[in-house]
Amino acid sequence: MPLMRFDLIKGRDSGELRLLLDTAHEAMVEAFGVPQDDRYQIVHQHPAEELVIEDTGLGFTRSSGLVIVSVTTKEKTRAQKERLYALLAERLQERCGISPDDLMVSIVENGPEDWSFGRGEAQFITGKL
User: Fold this and answer.
1) Strands 103-110 and 67-74
2) Helix H segments across 1-129?
């Protein structure tokens, strides 16, 4: 159910994108305990000048490999969120060559009434999910 949005600088090929999405989904499944087929991902690719992501004074070295992950989800625990951050950083570096300095993650939480997966219904409220 979490909706993952990825903002990237243009230039990755379809194989690189698929590996990124597969790796992020695997981390989501493990960290948040969602079902394997509970996958909602959107990729937005931008010209480099459209992304201004600085280091907030933390000493990050950003590159064209920058990945911004925005997650919209029902409420999660602090431990689940921290686990997701760690898994994403570790696995994206290991499998995709993305530096942890180039990863920014933001999580926005909402409630069951804030989701409709189709057919004009709120499936979490109706009990279908």
Assistant:
1) parallel
2) 14-32, 78-96, 123-126
The whole model's pTM is what?
A: 0.95
Q: Answer whether 91's CB lies under 8 Å from 23's CB.
A: yes
The total of other beta-carbon atoms located within 10 Å of residue 1's CB is 18
Q: Which of 2, 35, 100, 112 is catalytic?
A: 2
pLDDT at 22: 98
What six digits make up the tokens of 17?
A: 């994108």
| Residue pair 36/73 in contact by the 8 Å Cβ criterion | no
Report whether 129 contacts 117 (CB < 8 A). Answer: yes
Residue 100 known to be catalytic: no
Q: Count of residues for the chain?
A: 129
